[in-house]
Amino acid sequence: MLVTGLVVTLLGVGCKDKGSGGDFSVSVNYINADKLAPMEKRRMVLEEIPFGGEGAPVILDSATVAEAKGKIELEGKAKEEGIYQVAVENGPVLLLVNDADNIKVELDMSKKERYYTVQGSEGSKQLQDFIQQYSDRSQEINGVFASLDSLKQVGASDSLVLAMTDRKNSSIASLTTYMKDFINNAKSPSVSLFSLGLSSQVLPKAEFETVMNNVMKKFPEHGMLKNLKQTYDQQQAQVAEMEKQRAAKSLVGKPAPNLTMADPGGKNVSIADFRGRYVLVDFWASWCGPCRQENPNVVRAYDKFRSKNFTILGVSLDKEKEPWLKAIAADKLSWSHMSDLKYWDSESVKVYGFEGIPYNVLIDPQGTIIAENLRGFDLENKLTEVLK
Which of 94, 198, 222, 307 has the least C-beta neighbours within 10 A? Predict the structure, then answer.
C-alpha cells in the first residue's frame, strides 16, 4: 500500500480529544508463530511512530514470542489518542488506535491478509476496515488500468477500450465515494487523519479540501488537524509557485524557435520546412535508454495519425553518425531526422532549453507550440484531440 508523505505525517499524530489520554494495554492472542521463518527470541513490540514519521519508531513495550501460540500483554502510555503499531519481528504488523484502556487482538501469523481481529477499540476496527477496503479497491483499480494498457498496446477495438475505460472510471468513482463517506462518518480524530492522508492520493483537489474542512469542523480543537491544514496550505503554495515557474519557462503558446541541421544524407532540414502541418519535434539520442523505450509509443502515434496532416521530426543529440543511423533503423523511425552531432552542446538544447531527453514539442500548422513533453498515451490522446 502506497503511503504519501502526508500520510506519514498523519501516522505520527499522537493527538486525542481532551481528557482521553493515559495508560492502555494490548492483549494479543496469537497462533501459528511457527509458520514464520525460524529465529531465536522473536520479539513482539508495541511502538509509537514519532511525529512526522521521522526517525525510528519508539518502543513502548515488548515481549518474546516463545511458543507457536500464546498470549502477550503489552502496555503503553499516551498523552492523547494516536495510531500505534504492534509489530512481530520478521512477521506481521498491525495498526491500533488507543481509544480504549484495554484492546484485545486475535492474531494468526500464518495468514498474509485479514490476519487479525480487534475487540474493545472501535477506532482500531474502523482503521482495519478502512485499510482493507482501500487495499482491495486499489488492487481492483490497478488491475483495470493494467488491462486497459494491454488493450491499447495490442490495438484492441475502440469498443473494448471504451468498455474497459468505463469500468476504470466506475472503479475510481466507487473508491472516492467510499473514502468520502468513511471520512465524513469517522468518529475518531486519528482515524480521520489517517484516512485523509490516503484520500489525498485519490480525491480530486476540491473534494479533498471539502472533506478535510468537514473533519476540522467535527474536531475543531484537534491540534494535528490544525497542523494538517497548515501543512496542506504550505504544500499548495509551493505547488502554485512551481506551476508559476514552470509556466514562465513553458514554450506552449509561443512560436516554435527554428532549427536547421543536417539529415542522415547531409541535406539541411529546418523545423520551418514543416509549416502547414502538425509536427512533433522529438528530441532523443541513440544512447538514451528512456528515449529508446519511448520510441514504440512514438511509432504507434505516427502510424495512427500520419494520414491526418501530421508528421514527426527527430532531432538527435548523438555524437557520432553511425549509432544514430543504426538506432533509426532498429526502432523503425520512418520519419524525418536531423542532428548536428554535438551531444549536449547541440544547438537544440540552447534554443529549446530542455534539461533531459526524451523531450518533444507539438507544433500546429501556424508554427505555434501547442503542447510539450508528451509521453506514452498522453501523446496519442493529444493528437486525437487536435486531429479530429
Answer: 307
Grouping H, G, I as helix, E, B as strand and the rest as coil, residue 203 is: coil
Residue 185: count of CB within 10 angstroms of its CB: 9
Which residue in the block uniquely carries the three cell numbers 475502440? 158
CA angle 299, 304, 309 (to 5 degrees): 105
SS3 label, residue 43: strand
**Do the bridges between strand 102-108 and strand 22-31 make them parallel or antiparallel, or are there none, so unpaired?**
parallel
pLDDT digits (tens, 9 = 90+) for 367-376: 999 999 998 8
Handedness of CA 356, 256, 387, 263 (dihedral sign): negative
Task: Give how far the C-alpha of residue 161 lies from the chain's centroid of Cα atoms, to the nearest Å.
Answer: 23
Class of domain 260-386: alpha beta
Residue 124: partners with Cβ closer than 8 Å, 6 or more residues away: 95, 96, 97, 99, 103, 118
Going by C-alpha positions, the residue among 72, 172, 76, 83 that lies closest to residue 124 is 83
Strand partners of residue 314: 282, 337
What residues pair up with 372 in beta bridges, in sequence order?
361
pLDDT, mean over the chain: 88
Which tens digits make up the pLDDT trace of 36-93?
A: 999 989 999 999 876 544 567 889 999 999 999 999 999 999 877 888 999 999 999 9
Number of H helices, E strands in the chain: 10, 15
Domain 5-119 has CATH 2.30.29: no
CA distances from 32 to 44, 70, 115, 158, 346 (A): 14, 9, 11, 51, 64
Q: How far is Cα 284 from Cα 348, in angstroms, rounded to an integer?
A: 11
Write down how long the chain is. Answer: 388
Give the span between the Cα atoms of 175 and 334, in whole angstroms: 43
Sketch the domain layout of the chain as residue ranges. 5-119, 127-248, 260-386
